[in-house]
Write a structure and sequence with these properties.
Number of helices: 3
Number of domains: 1
CATH superfamily: Transcriptional coactivator/pterin dehydratase
Order of helices and strands: HEEHEEH
CATH class: Alpha Beta
Largest sheet: 4 strands, antiparallel
Strand order of the largest sheet: 1-2-4-3
Structural class: alpha+beta
Shape: globular
CATH topology: Gyrase A, domain 2
């Protein structure tokens, strides 16, 4: 049995590394089913709902701390009662295993 994504560590990705194929992304997506695989399997996206602005802000701060520790930074939009998170490895303009690891770790925060 493989190690759960949330237990893995993001490993720096080098330029020139090919993005995951749609099939490989779909296989990893099975472990992050709350996320949407979008744009030809080049992005992971998820919306989170909260009761107020402070709840969204607190969550976004936790995600920011997690992302900084992992050295892997998502795009985040938030406001009163919501936080939208998009994950992609910008260096390769697509998805890498690191994106799914970060998504699983973000799921553990919610």
């Amino acid at each position: 049995m493989s190690t759960p994504l949330a237990s893995r560590i993001c490993v720096p990705c080098r330029g020139g590394t090919p993005p995951l194929t749609p099939e490989a992304a779909e296989a990893l997506h099975e472990q992050t089913p709350k996320w949407d695989l979008t744009d030809g399997a080049t992005w992971l996206r998820r919306s989170f709902k909260f009761d107020n602005f402070l709840g969204a802000l607190d969550f976004v701060n936790k995600v920011g701390k997690l992302a900084e520790e992992a050295g892997h930074h998502p795009d985040i939009a938030f406001g009163w009662g919501y936080a939208d998170i998009s994950v992609q490895t910008h260096k390769i303009k697509g998805l890498h295993e690191n994106d799914f690891i970060l998504a699983a770790k973000i799921d553990a925060l919610s």
